[in-house]
Amino acid sequence: MATNDRVRIGVIGVGSISVRGILPHLTQDDVQDRLQVTAVCDPVPGRAQAASEKFNVPHAYETYEALLADGHVDAVTIASPIGLHYEQGKLAIEHGLHAHFNKTMTTTVDEADDLIESAARKGVKLVASPGQMLRPIHQEIRRLINEGAIGTLTWAATGSSFGRYHENESVRHGDDMLSNINPAWYFRKPGGGPLYDMTVYGLHTMTGILGPAKRVTAFSG
């Protein structure tokens, strides 16, 4: 792929995060000089086709393997349930594709390490959401702390939560193929649940500013 060519993107999973976020953003006019969404994939019969028609995507697939085999993409953004990310990321790497993981990248450190090592061997790029440390404010906070602007930091706290605004978003309700989504999978394997889905924001921000964790202690209940 030449440096002036557009990156061809395949969107893996056409659930609410893709319909309300990924596909609207990646199909805006102001990014078309850099990338093109050329394929979508979802195992629910008809969903990928409905998304391809709504967002003008050339190719739709019900299986991930078919998307990979056809060769219409240079990279994938993986928006499937979190428990599937490792396997799907591994397949993308094996096919020589760059991969973006919607949060969270994997469910274990060992899985993430394996993907990073595999990508390095294949010469492909991996990136994972959320991009907390791309924000200028977080970079500035890290700079100030590292320069000793507030003295020696001895304690920090973070939280990760949302309000209930998203429960009433139209994309999550309705009778059409792309909005009538049963959220029960979210709390079942290979789903994710709020721990996988939400704590990544706080953890990424904290470790991005302060550095890797040296010790982890957890409790519940």
Brief descriptors of the model:
single chain; 221 residues; alpha/beta; Rossmann fold; 2 domains; six-stranded parallel β-sheet; 6 strands; globular
Chart the SSEs and their pairings.
Blueprint: E1 7-12, H1 16-26, E2 35-41, H2 47-55, E3 59-61, H3 64-70, E4 75-78, H4 85-94, E5 98-101, H5 109-122, E6 126-128, H6 136-146, H7 193-210
Parallel strand pairs: 1-2, 1-4, 2-3, 4-5, 5-6
Helix pairs in contact: 4-5, 6-7
Terminus-to-terminus distance: 52 Å
CATH architecture group name of the largest domain: 3-Layer(aba) Sandwich
The CATH topology of the largest domain is given as Rossmann fold
The overall strand count is 6
Query: Which CATH class of the largest domain?
Result: Alpha Beta
Mean pLDDT: 90
Residues in helices, as a percent range: 25-40%
- Largest sheet, if any? 6 strands, parallel
- Which strand order do you get reading across the main beta sheet? 3-2-1-4-5-6
Overall structural class, as computed from helix and strand content, comes to alpha/beta
What overall geometry do the principal axes of the alpha carbons give?
Answer: globular
Q: Going by CATH, what is the homologous superfamily of the largest domain?
A: NAD(P)-binding Rossmann-like Domain
The number of helical runs is 7
Flag low-confidence runs: none
Q: H/E element string?
A: EHEHEHEHEHEHH
Radius of gyration: 19 Å
Our estimate of the beta-strand percent is 5-15%
Count of domains:
2
